[in-house]
Amino acid sequence: MKNLLVTGSIAIDRISVFHDRFANHILPEKVHKLNVAFTVEKMTINYGGTGGNIAYSLALMGEKPILLGSIGDDARDYIKHLKKHKIDCDYLYKSKTKLTAHATIMTDMDDNQITSFYMGAMSEASKTKISHIAQLTSQSDLAIIAPNDIGAMLQYADECRKNGIKFIADPGQAIPGFSAKDMKAFIKNAYILICNDYEWDMIQEKTGFGLPEALSNVDYLIITYGESGSKIWKSGGATVVDVPIVKTKNVVDPTGCGDAYRSGLMYGIVNGYSIEQSANIGAWIASKAVSRAGTQNHRIVKTDFQKFLKKI
Question: pTM of whole model > 0.70?
C-alpha cells in the first residue's frame, strides 16, 4: 500500500463581506491613529489551512491520507469533519495552551481585504514527527510539506530525506519567513518543488537560484500561473511541459484551488501516472474547488473522475 503524508497548516477561516468600500470610512490624514469598525451582515466559518485542504481533496479522490500538524482544543468539529472523509488524524498534535490557527478575512466591494492571522497551535507543529509514523518507511510513499511553522517544515524535509521518503516542497505563503540558508536546505533533494509564478520570483530573489540551480536540487520544478495553467521542468533537461487549466463554467472562489491542484498531483504520482498526467489531474480537481465558495466545500462525482482519468 502506498502512503500519502500531508503536512501543512490546519486552520479555521472566518470570512465576511463588507457591503461598502473600506476607503469610504478611512480618513487618510488619520491613519496614524486608525480606529474603525465595519459592520457585516453575514459571516461564514470554513475549515482551511494548507494541510487540511490538500488532505480533503485527496480523500474526495478515494485516498486515505495521513495528516500531520497541530491543532488546539477548539478543533473538535474540524477533526470530526476530516475523519468523516476517512483522513487519518491520529498523528495530529493537540496544543495544551493555544487555540487552532485562525484567519479572519473581511472583503469589501472592491475586493480589498483586511486579514488577521492567529498562528496559535501552528507554532507547535514541530512537536509532531514523521519518525512517529511507523508505516512511512518505503520509497513508494509520498509526502508534501506545505506552508506551516518554518521550523516544522525544515524538520519534516530532513526526516523525509533520512527515511527515503519522496517529498514535494511547497513553501508557498511561508517563503517570507525562510532565510536564504533555510530555503536552500528546505528544497534540497526534494522530488518536486512547486510554487506559483510570484512565489518563484521570491524564491529566486531569496536564494539567488535560477532554473539550473533549482533543478540541480530537485527532480521537478512545477510553477503554476493561475488561469494560464502550469509548467513543468525536469532536472537535467531543458524541456518545459505546459499543462492547461480545466475550464469550468462556474468560477465562484479561487481560494484553495492551489491546494486542490497539489492533491491531484499527489494522487497521480502514487497511482502510476506520469508527472504531466498527474498535473492534469491536479488541474481537474482545482476546477472543482473554484466552483464552490470556501476551501473544503467542493465535491466530485466518482464516475466523472474515472471518465477524466481514462482521457489523460
Answer: yes
Residue 1: per-residue pLDDT: 60
Q: Going edge to edge, which strands form the sheet with 43-48? A: 43-48, 11-17, 101-107, 113-118
Q: Encode burial over 109-148: b for 16+ CB neighbours within 10 A, e otherwise.
A: eeeeeeeeebbbbbbbbbebebeebeebeeeebbbbbbbb
Catalytic residues: 259
Contact indicator for 282, 265 with CB cutoff of 8 Å: yes
Neighbours of 80 (CB within 10 A): 10
How far apart are alpha carbons 240 and 160 in whole angstroms? 27
CA distances from 264 to 8, 34, 200, 286 (A): 16, 44, 21, 8
3-state secondary structure of 22: helix
Nearest alpha-carbon partner for 142 in 281, 17, 6: 6
Residue found under cell 486579514: 115
Q: What residues does 102 pair with on adjacent strands?
A: 12, 118
Which domains, ranges and CATH numbers included, belong to the chain?
Answer: 4-25+42-302+305-309 (3.40.1190.20)
List beta partners, residue 12: 47, 102
Q: Please, are residues 7 and 146 in contact by the beta-carbon 8 Å criterion? A: yes
Name the residue with cell 473600506. 22
| pLDDT band for position 32 (cuts 50, 70, 90) | confident
